[in-house]
Write a structure and sequence with these properties.
It contains 21 helices and 5 strands. By secondary structure, it is mainly alpha-helical. The protein has a domain of about 90 residues. Helix 1 crosses helix 5, helix 5 crosses helix 7 and helix 16 runs antiparallel to helix 17. The longest helix has about 35 residues.
Length: about 525
């Protein structure tokens, strides 16, 4: 086994084991609850499909109509949930078995992709650059479509890079077909990830523009120039395959569109939230503000280093180098640009642009190795280790301190969670902090108390009961006026919280969870309902 394969395998196994150990701790946010609720139904219909094909097809079509999106990610996490419970992992950890598998695969892909860019040191660093932040660690432990989408985005770019470097036409065609299939799978997981195909088109278009520029200057005179001129005149296999496979993949995984595929454009836009009110914080700004400052500096260093290599390669007419640099720069910056102009999906947290981070981690790892080599060539590995420890430790420490509430963490320049709360930015991604007060509820709530849950998903509450985290005698109240207790997950509008104060006759929280003195969830009680 090659060194590259050993590093990738080691990172993959270590990430899977670590993720599986940690997945039992975070609460269940609304986005994960929606994915899993649909996943359980999707898996059920698919299991019954051989015996009841017509009923299963109708059930899947109705489910995809209700969810308003394709069901590929839901099917994966639904089957993983069932397998995890059968394996004895429990109601919480078991439902996230798919997330742990994806974490291992993403780490392996990052290590394998970084090796040809910066050697073994970069392969060891790239997964750490991605995972050692509170936000990425928090999102990576959840059973949502986002981590799967980020993995497929990275794999599509790696396959296109392989096609660019392939020595034979057969190898280029094979890599291009795999890239097209991967782009289609990414779009079927989250339709906005079909923009991976636009990255490939932009890359090809820039190559054609550069070719025409060279032709006008009369500089296409070498055999290599002629070969690439011939290649660029042809549409790459990946682009042609994606043009066919992406609509086919979307249609195959979106049964509600089968009866009216021509109306799928409106459903496609609605599935990612386009046309809905803009979020309180632009997704690109939120992503950059949520990352630890050293990690953000490393990503910026990676982009700057890639841009410098591109300029140098263009001056030296190193076509192979310039084509790869353009590809990775597009892969890492296009999601951020789309988010910056408001074309990212309306998803909580860093999910709208999470696919940008794996390519940025590759570039940052290579840049860090290059910086260490430049600083101390004779002790390159020692310098890489020193810089990595210095720059990665803050993010790792922040992830450890905020765990399992990393989805509410913010970067140092913003002033942490307190700075974000002062600006009125979202405190949490969807009620996951509710889990932090369940122990207090079980200990102090009066027998048969009625609870109004504000901000927590019903699927999450059912799982907490199955896991024994919530007392069986505590019942859900349909309105706050009927409730003895109100559990308020702080997110978005506070109108329901004000209603709870009025109905319960108290503005003093009897319990809560706070991150950097910022309330994420609070419990309010009527007199006598809290012992």
């Amino acid at each position: 086994m090659s060194l590259r394969a050993r590093i990738a395998l080691g990172w993959g196994l270590a990430s899977f084991a670590a993720a599986l150990a940690l997945t039992g701790a975070p609460g269940i946010p609304a986005a994960e609850a929606a994915t899993l609720a649909a996943g359980v139904e999707t898996a059920g219909w698919l299991v019954r499909a051989p015996a009841e094909p017509v009923a299963s097809l109708r059930g899947l079509a109705e489910l995809s109509r209700v969810t308003g999106r394709p069901l590929l990610a839901e099917a994966l996490h639904g089957f993983a949930d069932a397998g995890g419970e059968r394996a004895g992992l429990g109601p919480i950890r078991g439902l996230r078995l798919g997330a742990a598998l994806l974490a291992g695969l993403l780490s392996a892909a990052l290590a394998a992709g970084a090796f040809p860019l910066g050697g073994a040191a970069a392969a060891l660093l790239a997964p750490a650059l991605f995972w050692f932040t509170p936000r990425t660690l928090g999102l990576g432990l959840l059973a949502t479509p986002d981590l799967l989408g980020a993995l497929l985005w990275l794999l599509a770019m790696q396959e296109f890079a392989r096609a660019l470097q392939a020595p034979t036409r057969l190898a280029r065609t094979r890599a291009g077909l795999v890239c097209g299939v991967t782009c289609a799978a990414a779009a079927a997981v989250r339709p906005d990830l079909g923009s991976a195909w636009l990255v490939l088109v932009a890359h090809w278009g820039l190559g054609r523009f550069h070719l025409r520029w060279l032709a006008r200057g009369g500089t296409i005179d070498t055999a290599a120039d002629v070969e690439w001129a011939v290649r660029l005149r042809r549409v790459p296999t990946a682009i042609a395959a994606g043009l066919v496979l992406i609509p086919a993949g979307l249609l195959a995984c979106w049964p509600s569109q089968w009866s009216a595929p021509l109306r799928g454009g409106a459903a496609l836009l609605a599935s990612v939230g386009w046309g809905q009110p803009a979020p309180p914080v632009n997704a690109a700004v939120l992503l950059l503000a949520a990352l630890p400052a050293p990690t953000l500096a490393l990503f910026a260093l990676g982009v700057g280093h890639a841009a410098l290599r591109l300029v140098v390669s263009l001056r030296r007419r190193e076509g192979a180098v310039s084509r790869l640099e353009v590809l990775w720069l597009l892969a890492g910056t296009v999601p951020l640009l789309l988010a910056a102009v408001g074309l990212a999906p309306r998803l909580p947290g860093i999910a709208p642009a999470i696919q940008a981070l794996p390519p940025l981690a590759l570039l940052a790892a290579r840049a860090l190795v290059a910086l260490a080599t430049l600083a101390w060539p004779a002790r390159r590995l020692a310098m890489v280790s020193l810089l990595a420890l210095f720059l990665l430790y803050p993010g790792l420490r922040a992830a450890a301190v905020t765990f399992p509430h990393g989805a509410s963490a913010w970067g140092e320049p913003l002033g942490g969670a307190a700075g974000a709360a002062w600006r009125g930015w979202p405190r949490a991604d969807g009620g996951e902090a509710t889990r932090a007060v369940l122990a207090d509820l079980s200990l102090h709530a009066a027998p048969d108390a009625r609870i109004r849950w504000i901000g927590a998903a019903r699927f999450a509450l059912d799982r907490y009961r199955r896991a024994g985290l919530l007392r069986a005698d505590l019942v859900e109240a349909s309105t706050v006026e009927e409730a003895d207790l109100a559990v308020v997950a702080r997110q978005g509008s506070r109108e329901e919280e004000y209603d709870a104060w009025s109905a319960l006759g108290s503005t003093r929280a009897v319990s809560g969870f706070y991150l950097d003195e910022v309330a994420l969830v609070q419990v309010y009680a009527r007199p006598g309902a809290w012992r």
